[in-house]
Amino acid sequence: MSDRLPGFSTLAVHAGAQPDPTTGARATPIYQTTSFVFNDADHAASLFGLQAFGNIYTRIGNPTNAVLEERVAALEGGTAALAVASGHAAQVVVLQQLLQPGDEFIAARKLYGGSINQFTHAFKSFGWNVVWADPDDVASFERAVTPRTRAIFIESIANPAGSITDIEAISTVARKAGVPLIVDNTLASPYLIRPIDHGADIVVHSLTKFLGGHGNSLGGIIVDAGTFDWSTGGKYPMLSEPRPEYHGIRLQETFGNFAFAIACRVLGLRDLGPALSPFNAFMILTGIETLPLRMQKHCDNAKAVAEFLAGHSAVASVNYAGLASDKYNQLARKYAPKGAGAVFTFSLKGGYDAGVSLVSKLQLFSHLANVGDTRSLVIHPASTTHSQLDDAAKTKSGAGPDVVRLSIGIEDKEDLIADLEQALGA
Amino acid sequence: MNHDSYPDNYIRSILNGVKSIAMVGASPVNVRPSYFAFKYLAQRGYDMIPVNPGHVGKDLLGKPFVASLRDIGRPVDMIDIFRNSSHIMPVVDEALTLDPLPKVIWMQLGARDDAAAEKAEAAGIKVVMNRCPKIEYGRLSSEISWMGVNSRTLSSKRAPAPTQGMRLSLNRMSVGGGDTAASDRAAKNKSEQS
Ligand SMILES: Cc1ncc(COP(=O)(O)O)c(C=O)c1O
């Protein structure tokens, strides 16, 4: 038995998957079933009591989903993962384990617009209070810490402008405050950035984007780094206290360095219910097998398109961290040396109207509200994903009225540039 | 032995090699981690012996409790200690009076006593600290993957469907020597703080 470390591409194909024990099927089967038979009453009781490993009901776990979970845990360098129905569901489930009503969490102001809405409105009704900080000013996180702070939430590469967050600096703030750092790694994927290597305690993804990669399946995932000690100070009773839901089990004591992932499954997913369809898990798994190939092509294309736009007379500015002149280029070189991702924004000299006109003239780029598809995508965030924000908040989160966001696909870059050229020129 | 992290092969050889396990601090309360581990290891075919002076006269899943290691009255391959770090040393001292000596002393998740480990190792006993044998068995066999846990192993071989009482193959390819950078860093941070 050799103990050698396989590379990222090997893990992307193999981690979590083995031939099916009963049929020998080599591709991961879609276990399209709601429930699983027990061997006998004792087996059933062991499973319900969390004493045995195994399957009960697909809302709690499913063998296809389990392969996806182990694969993403391996790619991120975590101890365990839990797949859920969407990226947003992942965020709810994570924070449910960490916050009691009246508690606070600090979030970077530059986030996917849907996350800003979720944190501001939906979570407020749960009594979870978000406190905003500026990811470009680490001290603003430090100032936001109070005795009620229970977590810090950032994006590694931030939607919509593709800015890069200084994960290590913010993880130092989190460690000092004694709270876990949660990193949404959706726009980077573990191929570009592995936040756990930089101090993250929990990683979340919208699998809907680059990991699935083909624009065909919603999904989300939570990765437990196994790094956080939940027992100190009684701040995290879901993990450290006896749980009445399970006859007094203490999850950290029982499950050690993957207790957070178990809490998300048996206290979050079980009771809130946002289970991932096994069919979606299969589609996403298939996507992940080619993640390294796709992600490199996404990044190489994005850099070429960003360079083209930066040199175009109709363009006022381009925000792409992969450009040497970009404000975030230094951070991109440190955190994402293989490429700065494929989602970025630019603004047009002609403002709002020019943005609307560009979107309508593009032939290859699809006008829609998603990122991380094989296809190249375009959107005007101010009137769509970020439309619920007021103008000041739009500008602060990088989605001002003159801004257009691109998600660059894996087509031939010459064709993407030609499409933009005709749409900008005419 | 470096006790911050263990190569998979070290854990694998222990779990493949031992047949009988005496569990010190085994609890009959079915929500305690020791009960989970006892039951799991018994179901995977190990000869389990519950050691707990508070429960002598009763049995755990059909196995009679004994009060101390000396009361077992037959050789045991491994001693699994379900006690806090501060209660480890007396158990190790007692284990060192056994004849023949156990081959392995295992301290549970959260339990670590470096001085006790050194003493046992000086007597030729293998030591594992701050790990759970149930979790390690489940991980190396990949049975734990049903819970979304990163087994840190790979295999292109078809495994038989597990049934009650069956020992599983632990001989899968390891991913990265049996430790994750992150969990090692956490363990290191913790021992530096204390
Ligand atoms: C960075 C980021 N996080 C989270 C989400 C939410 O994911 P989902 O749509 O899968 O709920 C998105 C979706 O656009 C996103 O871009």
Furnish the topology, listing elements before pairings.
The complex is a heterodimer of chains A (426) and B (194).
Chain A: H1 8-14, H2 41-48, H3 63-76, E1 80-84, H4 87-98, E2 104-108, H5 113-122, E3 129-133, H6 138-144, E4 149-155, E5 157-158, E6 163-164, H7 167-177, E7 181-184, H8 189-192, E8 202-206, E9 220-224, H9 237-240, H10 251-255, H11 259-272, H12 278-289, H13 291-310, E10 315-319, H14 329-335, E11 343-348, H15 351-361, E12 366-367, E13 377-379, H16 391-396, E14 403-407, H17 413-425
Parallel strand pairs in A: 2-3, 2-4, 4-7, 7-8, 12-13
Antiparallel strand pairs in A: 1-9, 5-6, 8-9, 10-11, 11-14, 13-14
Chain B: H1 8-17, E1 20-24, H2 33-43, E2 47-51, E3 59-60, E4 63-64, E5 78-81, H3 88-95, E6 104-107, H4 114-122, E7 126-128, H5 133-140, E8 153-154, E9 173-174, H6 181-193
Parallel strand pairs in B: 1-2, 1-5, 5-6, 6-7
Antiparallel strand pairs in B: 3-4, 8-9
Helix pairs in contact in B: 1-5, 3-4
The complex binds pyridoxal-5'-phosphate (PLP).
How much helicity do the residues of chain A have? Answer: 25-40%
User: What is the makeup of the main sheet of chain B?
Assistant: 5 strands, parallel
**CATH architecture descriptor text of chain B:** 3-Layer(aba) Sandwich
Secondary-structure class of chain A: alpha/beta
CATH architectural type of the largest domain in chain A:
3-Layer(aba) Sandwich
Largest interface: A-B, 63 and 55 residues
Uncertain spans of chain B: 177-181
Strand order of the largest sheet of chain A: 1-9-8-7-4-2-3
Q: Write down how many β-strands of chain A occur, each being a DSSP E stretch of 2 or more residues.
A: 14
Rounded average pLDDT of chain A: 94
How many beta-strand segments of chain B? Answer: 9
Instruction: Give the number of helices of chain B.
Output: 6
Distance between the termini of chain B: 21 Å
Quaternary organization: heterodimer
